[in-house]
Each structure stands twice: as structure tokens, then as C-alpha cells.
Specification:
alpha/beta; 2,3-Dihydroxybiphenyl 1,2-Dioxygenase, domain 1; 8 strands; globular
Length: 133
């Protein structure tokens, strides 16, 4: 079972490492852990995100399903802080803030961002914390 000492690891493509670093570090506030000629490693909200240089990654119009990643915030304050950061830093949106499953136990607030390589990042918060998983 995962504990707070463990870190989830995700690797994604990046067409340009400078643009990728700009987005994740300067816009989202992630911590740059390491940078090499072929990848950057980030502290992505407490987990490890590795962006591998993939200049030949084909351009495509991204779709939210089936491939996206992000963070489900346990605390509404943390979700709201991210929303403020996105607004202040004018982070590119794929889908604006929305409420899904309104009036049900699965009700949650969500926003979807688009990185420079067209990877989609969903950030959300459930009103009922039991719905996080």
C-alpha cells in the first residue's frame, strides 16, 4: 500500500523542454528537480513527473478521454488556490471550470489545462471526500 513516503511516477512526452519547463515550473509552480538534455523531472504536486523530449510527437487535437492526468484535491482551499494561480498566470485552458454530476454524491468541480505538447491535465475537487477514489 502506498504511504506518504512513496511517490507516484508518470512519464509524458514533451516536444520542447524549454516550453515544458515554462508551463510546469513558471506557470503551475511545480518544482524542477532535475534537467538533462533529453528530459526534465518535476515535483508535480508531490509526485514525480518526467517530461521526455519527444520532438517528433505528432500534433493532434487532444481529447480528454481516454488520456489525461492531474490531481484530485482533498481540500477545496487547495483547489481554489490552483484556480487563482491559473487565472493570474493565464495558464492555457482546455476546458474551463465546471461542476460535474451536480446534486449527486459524485458532484465535483473540475478544470482541464493543456500543456505545450497537448497533454491534458485535469484538476478537481469532490464535495464528498469519499468520492476521491
Amino acid at each position: 500500500m502506498r504511504t506518504s513516503h512513496d511517490t507516484f511516477h508518470l512519464a509524458i512526452p514533451a516536444r520542447d523542454l524549454d516550453e515544458t519547463e515554462q508551463f510546469y515550473v513558471r506557470q503551475l509552480g511545480c518544482h524542477l528537480a532535475r534537467r538533462y538534455a533529453d528530459r526534465i523531472t518535476l515535483n508535480f504536486f508531490g509526485d514525480q513527473l518526467v517530461c521526455h523530449l519527444s520532438p517528433d510527437e505528432p500534433r493532434r487535437e487532444p481529447r480528454l478521454y481516454p488520456r489525461h492526468f492531474g490531481v484530485t484535491f482533498a481540500r477545496r482551499d487547495d483547489f481554489d488556490a490552483l484556480l487563482r494561480l491559473v487565472e493570474i498566470r493565464k495558464v492555457p485552458l482546455f476546458l474551463p471550470l465546471a461542476t460535474r454530476f451536480n446534486g449527486t454524491v459524485e458532484e465535483h468541480h473540475t478544470i482541464v489545462l493543456r500543456d505545450p505538447t497537448d497533454n491534458l491535465l485535469e484538476f478537481k475537487h469532490y464535495e464528498d471526500p469519499r468520492m476521491m477514489y
